[in-house]
């Protein structure tokens, strides 16, 4: 007989009843090959004595096994593993040299280059992130109130059914009005696709535009996740310099004389990571080049809502008369990162195709959440949130920039950003950023090590330092730890 006293360990403090625990352990023994078809199970009396539970509990466990089709009862003979089950070989133990995470016998794509997993900031108490909103400012209670209210209404039950992959019609209507008033972007709901954040929009655009071997123009410095997405689609990256006026469109024009690109990816407001804004002259020239050379422009405008010193330029999509711009935006970056709501605006045909791909990977979004956001837009709550946040973030930007100037002094160099949620800070070349990140972590502060911003042509000794998610007291604490963690230079 098997050593059931060792194999079957029950937890009397668990919320799972004892007989279900015993049943589940027997199922594991059957599926891993320890018990084979037609093997006899110990009597209820013997098993009860071995593992220290009531006999009736064992009987209930056996009844559950039989009802689930794992065992069968033979009159006057006992309980047996179901004879019709297929014979399974005994699973190899970890000691046999096979990792738990690497026992699959099939092959799959494993090489994703330098793509790094997201940092889990939910588990971190104090962080200088690279420019995220303060989730404490978001009217989450109002959003959840509307979510609950919609789910309780009779009409709201319809939102629990399958829906259009384009997203909530009410939210698309609200966004259409918002984009007209805030950005001068005249569009219709047929041109808007709701996505789970801007990253999904970038992925969908890449899948539609790019074939293996195609070229896409991107900045020398650029949003790393966008680069990874384009590479994953099989594209080659054509690096174009970025200066204080944004992407160097004159250089792009020179390259276009010798090579063809399928698309250009730009972040015209608060370029990632350096925070620069593209000049209107370059925007107009880029639109002309797109018309002449027949390429798409993927315009990533992830934090348009946060401009502090000047009114923002209108997006390229607002002045594009030839339908070459795919405009991508995010509500997540202005509300809360974990609430994944973004949007794509493009020609109806392109949006319909993007919705088809979205249906393959995600079927549809969270309709109730989208409907709740629509209510907040229509009630003016989102506008109030943007205005309140803009005022607070401007104050925090000013305080943060004064603090890093005073505390870090000659060890850094930066320009005060006109907008966005982070500051691009260049460190003295003698400061090892990976070592600084480790030292700060030991002292209770999370800060990146700079590797995320680097690529094959761009390797600055710099960090994006987010200010928006920190209150003044938290800034003081974080920068004090950072300063203590710096080496003497």
- Terminal CA distance: 70 Å
Q: β content, as a range?
A: 5-15%
What would you call the shape?
Answer: globular
CATH topology of the largest domain: Aspartate Aminotransferase, domain 2
CATH domain class name of the largest domain: Alpha Beta
For the largest sheet, list the strands in their spatial order: 4-12-11-10-9-5-6
Alpha carbon gyration radius: 29 Å
Number of helices: 15
Specify the structural class.
Answer: alpha/beta
Oligomeric state of the chains present here: single chain
Unreliable spans are 92-100
Provide the residue-averaged pLDDT: 90
Helix amount: 25-40%
Q: Please provide the count of β strands.
A: 16
User: What's the story with the biggest beta sheet?
Assistant: 7 strands, mixed
**Domains (count):** 3
CATH superfamily of the largest domain: Type I PLP-dependent aspartate aminotransferase-like (Major domain)
Q: What would CATH call the architecture of the largest domain?
A: 3-Layer(aba) Sandwich
């Amino acid at each position: 007989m098997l050593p059931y006293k060792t194999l079957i360990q029950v937890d009397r403090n668990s919320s799972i009843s004892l007989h279900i625990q015993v049943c589940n352990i027997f199922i594991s023994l059957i599926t891993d090959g320890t018990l084979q078809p037609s093997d006899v199970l110990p009597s209820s009396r013997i098993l009860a004595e071995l593992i220290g539970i009531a006999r009736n509990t064992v009987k209930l466990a056996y009844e559950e096994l039989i009802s689930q089709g794992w065992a069968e009862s033979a009159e006057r003979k006992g309980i047996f593993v179901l004879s019709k089950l297929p014979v399974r070989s005994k699973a190899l133990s970890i000691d046999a040299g096979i990792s738990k995470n690497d026992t699959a016998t099939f092959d799959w794509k494993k090489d994703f280059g330098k793509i790094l997993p997201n940092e889990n900031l939910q588990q971190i108490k104090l962080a200088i992130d690279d420019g995220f909103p303060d989730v404490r400012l978001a009217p989450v209670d109002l959003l959840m109130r509307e979510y609950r209210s919609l789910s309780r209404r009779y009409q709201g039950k319809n939102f629990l059914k399958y829906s259009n992959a384009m997203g909530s019609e009410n939210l698309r209507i609200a966004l259409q009005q918002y984009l007209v008033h805030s950005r001068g972007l005249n569009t219709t709901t047929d041109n808007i696709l709701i996505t789970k954040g801007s990253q999904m929009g970038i992925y969908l655009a890449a899948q539609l535009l790019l074939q293996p071997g195609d070229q896409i123009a991107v900045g020398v410095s650029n949003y790393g996740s966008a680069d990874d997405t384009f590479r994953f689609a099989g594209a080659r990256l054509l690096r174009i310099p970025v200066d204080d006026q944004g992407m160097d469109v004159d250089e792009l024009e020179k390259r276009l004389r010798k090579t063809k690109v399928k698309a250009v990816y730009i972040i015209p407001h608060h370029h990632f990571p350096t925070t620069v804004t593209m000049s209107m002259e370059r925007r107009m020239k880029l639109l002309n080049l797109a018309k002449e050379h027949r390429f798409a422009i993927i315009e990533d405008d992830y934090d348009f809502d946060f401009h502090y010193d000047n009114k923002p330029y209108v997006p390229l999509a607002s002045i594009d008369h030839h339908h070459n711009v795919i405009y991508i935006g995010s509500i997540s970056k202005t509300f809360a990162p974990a609430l994944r709501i973004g949007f794509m605006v493009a020609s109806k045909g392109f949006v319909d195709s993007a919705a088809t791909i979205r249906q393959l990977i995600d079927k549809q979004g969270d309709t109730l959440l989208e409907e709740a956001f629509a209510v907040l837009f229509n009630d003016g709550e989102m506008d109030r949130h943007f205005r309140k946040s803009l005022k607070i973030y401007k104050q925090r930007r000013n305080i943060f920039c004064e603090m890093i100037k005073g505390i870090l002094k000659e060890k850094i160099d930066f320009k005060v950003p006109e907008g966005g949620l982070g500051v691009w800070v260049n460190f003295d070349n003698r400061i090892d950023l990976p070592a600084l990140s480790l030292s700060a972590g030991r002292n209770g502060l999370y800060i990146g090590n700079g590797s995320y911003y680097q690529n094959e042509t761009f390797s600055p000794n710099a960090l994006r330092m987010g200010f928006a998610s920190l209150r003044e007291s938290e800034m003081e604490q974080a920068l004090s730890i950072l300063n203590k963690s710096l080496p003497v230079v």
